[in-house]
Amino acid sequence: MAEGTNWWHSTKDYVNGLKLEMRRVTWPNRKQVEGTTAVVIFSVFAFALYFFVVDYFLARGVTGVLKFFSK
To answer: What global pTM score does this model have?
Structure first.
Protein backbone atom coordinates (compact mmCIF):
# COMPACT_ATOMS: atom_id res chain seq x y z
CA MET A 1 0.00 0.00 0.00
CA ALA A 2 2.90 2.33 0.67
CA GLU A 3 4.05 2.09 -2.95
CA GLY A 4 0.61 3.09 -4.25
CA THR A 5 0.41 6.18 -2.06
CA ASN A 6 4.02 7.10 -2.84
CA TRP A 7 3.22 6.98 -6.55
CA TRP A 8 0.08 9.02 -6.01
CA HIS A 9 1.86 11.71 -3.98
CA SER A 10 4.78 11.97 -6.38
CA THR A 11 2.39 12.33 -9.33
CA LYS A 12 0.38 14.95 -7.46
CA ASP A 13 3.58 16.86 -6.60
CA TYR A 14 4.68 16.70 -10.24
CA VAL A 15 1.36 18.09 -11.50
CA ASN A 16 1.40 20.87 -8.89
CA GLY A 17 4.96 21.78 -9.88
CA LEU A 18 3.97 21.74 -13.54
CA LYS A 19 1.06 24.12 -12.87
CA LEU A 20 3.40 26.46 -10.96
CA GLU A 21 5.93 26.53 -13.82
CA MET A 22 3.22 27.09 -16.43
CA ARG A 23 2.10 30.21 -14.55
CA ARG A 24 5.65 31.58 -14.90
CA VAL A 25 5.78 31.10 -18.69
CA THR A 26 5.76 34.24 -20.81
CA TRP A 27 3.55 33.44 -23.78
CA PRO A 28 4.09 35.20 -27.12
CA ASN A 29 1.42 37.51 -28.45
CA ARG A 30 -0.35 36.98 -31.78
CA LYS A 31 2.01 39.29 -33.72
CA GLN A 32 5.07 37.37 -32.50
CA VAL A 33 3.52 34.02 -33.40
CA GLU A 34 2.59 35.23 -36.89
CA GLY A 35 6.09 36.63 -37.44
CA THR A 36 7.91 33.49 -36.36
CA THR A 37 5.48 31.31 -38.32
CA ALA A 38 6.23 33.32 -41.47
CA VAL A 39 9.97 32.89 -40.88
CA VAL A 40 9.58 29.14 -40.43
CA ILE A 41 7.45 28.75 -43.57
CA PHE A 42 9.91 30.85 -45.61
CA SER A 43 12.85 28.84 -44.24
CA VAL A 44 11.21 25.53 -45.13
CA PHE A 45 10.64 26.62 -48.73
CA ALA A 46 14.16 28.10 -49.00
CA PHE A 47 15.75 24.86 -47.75
CA ALA A 48 13.52 22.80 -50.04
CA LEU A 49 14.64 24.85 -53.03
CA TYR A 50 18.28 24.63 -51.97
CA PHE A 51 18.16 20.84 -51.57
CA PHE A 52 16.30 20.48 -54.87
CA VAL A 53 19.01 22.41 -56.70
CA VAL A 54 21.85 20.54 -54.97
CA ASP A 55 20.18 17.18 -55.62
CA TYR A 56 19.56 18.07 -59.28
CA PHE A 57 23.19 18.98 -59.96
CA LEU A 58 24.60 16.06 -57.98
CA ALA A 59 22.32 13.63 -59.83
CA ARG A 60 23.41 15.08 -63.19
CA GLY A 61 27.05 14.86 -62.14
CA VAL A 62 26.82 11.25 -60.97
CA THR A 63 24.89 10.30 -64.10
CA GLY A 64 27.54 11.96 -66.25
CA VAL A 65 30.37 10.18 -64.45
CA LEU A 66 28.60 6.81 -64.75
CA LYS A 67 27.94 7.33 -68.45
CA PHE A 68 31.56 8.33 -69.02
CA PHE A 69 32.97 5.24 -67.33
CA SER A 70 30.42 2.81 -68.76
CA LYS A 71 31.44 3.40 -72.37
So the answer is: 0.61
